[in-house]
Amino acid sequence: SVSHSQITRLYSRFTSLDKGENGTLSREDFQRIPELAINPLGDRIINAFFSEGEDQVNFRGFMRTLAHFRPIEDNEKSKDQNGPEPLNSRSNKLHFAFRLYDLDKDDKISRDELLQVLRMMVGVNISDEQLGSIADRTIQEADQDGDCAISFAEFVKVLEKVDVEQKMSIRFLH
Amino acid sequence: ELGWLAARLGAAWLSLVFALIVLPSALGVSLGISEAYMWVLVKTLEWATIRIQKGAKKPQPQMQKTAAANGIIERDETPMEKEIAGLHRMEFHFSDIFYFCRKGFEAIVEDEVTQRFSSEELVSWNLLTRTNVNFHYISLRLTVVWVIGVIVRYCFLLPLRFTLAAIGITSMIVGTTVVGQLPNSSVKDYLSEVVHLTCSRILVRALSGTIHYHNKENKPKKGGICVANHTSPIDAIILTNDGCYAMVGQVHGGLMGIIQRATVKACPHVWFERSEMKDRHLVTKRLREHVADKNKLPILIFPEGTCINNTSVMMFRKGSFEIGGTIYPVAIKYDPQFGDAFWNSSKYNIVSYLLRIMTSWAIVCDVWYMPPMVRKEGEDAVQFANRVRSAIARQGGLTELPWDGGLKRAKVKDSFKEEQQKNYSKMLVRNGSVG
């Protein structure tokens, strides 16, 4: 579980981002962080904090989303087999990444959705045809049931050799 | 009867202030009162720190004083190319987003830029309410000392400092107007210097300023350009306490405007109208003319363009470095233990800022004069600006950031995002063909 000092520091960070001082963060509050504003996937990442139809996120929601990025080692200390799966398990980290691609939340990554995310990452530097080829090939390699879309199970299979735990974790200093 | 008594007290108070503070300022001598005050202050704060450490329930982890250790998270500095391309070559992979995702979340938890626009966190409490964020009630003795501190600061120091500031500003306006009436001559220049120096010294004492100047042999000379990092409006007073400069800035209204109009009569400060500031060529031309005249005082410029919280030096605007002439870099580092000099202009206006400064313990800072620098052959203004910035950051023990101080208010340019997109595209496609 998260330590007291970590919560205090994250709360301090939350309040410093909250320019409106109303206990919640809006999308603009996030976009004020320069390093996030220049991130090609910045908007998708910001979106992950907000529930369907909401424009504000409170501290609880903030922590919940951040919890996905806690290192998996933290779970070793509190082995609760009967409890719900922790947010930072490998499976939930993969689910989080899946949702970044699945723009319409229909539990499938379609060719269009993949194209849109690709376009965000490459900007204007690659033509539509080339991007289309990349998307086609990626889906072809991962698609197992032939529906030309990627389901979560297919997504997990493609990433089985990737060290998700290390790549999707942020280490706290104390 | 009571009125007569109040007048007597008031007169006695003013004569004490004059004798002990204003007169020594004019003569440039020190009576040692500030030193004694600082000694008492340092001893008290040391005592307070020990009490806090003893009172802490859990053993505190060794808190290092460097800004890096005050960070919340460990940042992974692996460059994009290594992290993404390391897995595969020349093709897209679903895991590519992990890099951007993690970078994004790291920035949300802690980013290099926005933290520079708020005050530095203290390692241990300095008995000011405003810095008591992470520290809790420790002991009765400490609380009593804190209460005494509040009384001393608000009931004694604040009126004293306010009186001094009033005297300082009034003398500045009156003195420079009088000197301004004289015809241009070396006598006028000398008197102008005396007036400026005296008033600066009074104002520094009004802030209980303790300033250590290092390497005075490198002090900016006439015809040069003095360049320093910017933390607060009082930076200018800190520097004019030790030398005379030609100020550069925009004409303001109100009290500031009165001061500007008075001082420019005595000494050729460079004040621009708001409309003139927009024309960069006009600004550069006027400054170039000033610098070309070797009899004129060195101009003082703060190239960051805005106040930063004194833990880092942000991007220098290249305008100052296109003027030509010799640059005299100066590094200013405040000690936050005695009072926070940083002006967070989005949070406090100038009046509440000055109030906070005047109710702090003191303003303690180090000023390093650095050897002059000139633009090298083949170096453009931006590279020169960065070179000077590195030198200042290194001397003052500040970190260097490639970000623009303007980010305090403005959005970041899209070109940075475009650069990242370009770099990523290079890994997917080479020579226009898909891998």
Notable characteristics:
heterodimer; A: 174 residues; mainly alpha; Recoverin, domain 1; two-stranded antiparallel sheet; B: 435 residues; alpha/beta; two-stranded parallel ribbon; 13 helices; 12 strands; calcium (chain A)
Q: How are the SSEs ordered, and which strands pair?
A:
The complex is a heterodimer of chains A (174) and B (435).
Chain A: H1 4-17, E1 24-25, H2 27-31, H3 34-37, H4 42-47, E2 57-58, H5 59-67, H6 74-77, H7 90-101, E3 108-109, H8 111-122, H9 128-142, E4 150-151, H10 152-158, H11 164-167, E5 171-172
Antiparallel strand pairs in A: 1-2, 3-4
Helix pairs in contact in A: 8-9
Chain B: H1 2-27, H2 33-55, E1 73-74, H3 80-85, H4 96-109, H5 140-180, H6 186-206, E2 209-214, E3 225-228, H7 235-240, E4 246-250, H8 254-266, E5 270-272, H9 274-278, H10 280-292, E6 299-301, E7 312-313, E8 327-334, H11 350-358, E9 363-369, H12 381-396, E10 399-400, H13 414-428, E11 429-430, E12 433-434
Parallel strand pairs in B: 2-9, 3-6, 3-8, 4-5, 4-6, 7-10
Antiparallel strand pairs in B: 8-9, 11-12
Helix pairs in contact in B: 1-6, 5-6, 5-8
